[in-house]
Amino acid sequence: MSTPPAPARPARISLAVRDSSTMLRRNLLHARRYPSLTLNLLLTPIMLLLLFVYIFGDTMSAGIGGGDRSDYIAYIVPGLLLMTIGSTTIGTAVSVSNDMTEGIIARFRTMAIHRPSVLVGHVVGSVLQSVMSVVLVGAVAVAIGFRSTDATVLEWLAAFGLLVLFALALTWIAVGMGLVSPNAEAASNNAMPLILLPLLSSAFVPVDTMPGWFRPIAEYQPFTPAIETLRGLLLGTGIGHNGWLAVAWCVGLAVLGYLWSTSKFNSDPK
To answer: Which residue, 54, 118, 114, is CA-closest to 92?
Structure first.
């Protein structure tokens, strides 16, 4: 007896798009119904922005050779925008872990759906939330004096593309962390480096002002080249080799996170 033919490629693509859209709506509804986690994570970069601008702004501006507080606002905003993405993706790790521990993933495994759509829904939803969070933090920054008058339209588009690419990379890493965590609390703890690494980067002070033993920690990590690239794009200054390093980090983390997440998700549950 001959086996039934496999679905045509257009049909498979249509199924994947339909199921991924359904999972995306599901995750966005969860975020809307339970906004406290997103708001709590979003408060961290906003509070740091206000703290460093209004408490340390004049002193820090003098330390980086600026004229007044506005120079330091321009300096720290790019780093805080990327920190916002790291904060938002912690919520993704927690959400994925909840799905794993509450049994919904096990149920999805038994249903006739496009299996990768479960992860795609989480990833796309997280990227959208990251972009909205960045817009909100950026609006607060503009309200307290941040300006980007020297950036061209092309630089603005490049900055937006970098933010989306960075959010995609960190989201896939966060999804992997959520899949391997036994509970939501462990997922939150495992994803904590995504918000701590910006504190060890050039987000708040230039790398060349750091102690010599500490500089490699700040230089050889994904946030510093991404921050320097975003800072150059938003302020209309040079980015040097940081642009290629930032893209390489983003692509590398996205591929690593994707392979890790899909491998863990597709493995048979123990």
So the answer is: 118
